[in-house]
Write a structure and sequence with these properties.
single chain, mainly alpha, Methane Monooxygenase Hydroxylase, Chain G, domain 1, cilium
């Protein structure tokens, strides 16, 4: 049973490392001048990896339950306390997850800054300009002059 748990932890670690790598690519894309063409495949891969990670977590929780341990962190801490191989792999997984969390937080901040910049740019472009006689309007036509 512990061998299956260890194998799942190894798979989980690999998936988290892959997720962290994708987040690094996302950081590069978010700091690029024009990220729009770079982001769709990154988002697709992130979504795929999130599914893989959720599945591996469910498997891990099932294995813990089969061992008579609680799910999640408490169960893993108990399992790690009785097997050094599990403890070592659990520690690696936690470190990788923390690294991925930091990348994700940083990317969220980059997105927030970019969105803020875009909002300010839109606001600047939407400044109301007084109508002047002879100038065309947003529809490309010169407005009718009011009767005097």
């Amino acid at each position: 049973m512990k061998d299956a748990l260890l194998a799942t932890l190894v798979e989980e670690y690999s998936a988290v490392e892959a997720f962290a790598s994708i987040l690094t690519l996302e950081t590069k894309a978010l700091t690029a001048l024009s990220p729009l063409e770079l982001l769709p495949p990154i988002v697709e891969k992130k979504t795929e990896l999130i599914g893989v990670l959720a599945n591996l977590e469910a498997i891990r929780d099932k294995l813990l339950a089969d061992m008579g341990l609680p799910a999640g962190w408490p169960g893993m801490e108990l399992a790690a306390s009785t097997d050094t191989r599990v403890a070592d792999q659990w520690s690696l997984l936690q470190k990788a997850a923390e690294r991925a969390r930091r990348f994700n937080t940083s990317n969220g901040e980059l997105i927030r800054v970019r969105m803020d910049y875009n909002q300010r740019a839109l606001a600047a472009l939407q400044v109301e300009v007084p109508q002047k006689v002879g100038f065309y309007g947003p529809d490309g036509r010169i407005p009718a002059q009011p009767a005097a």
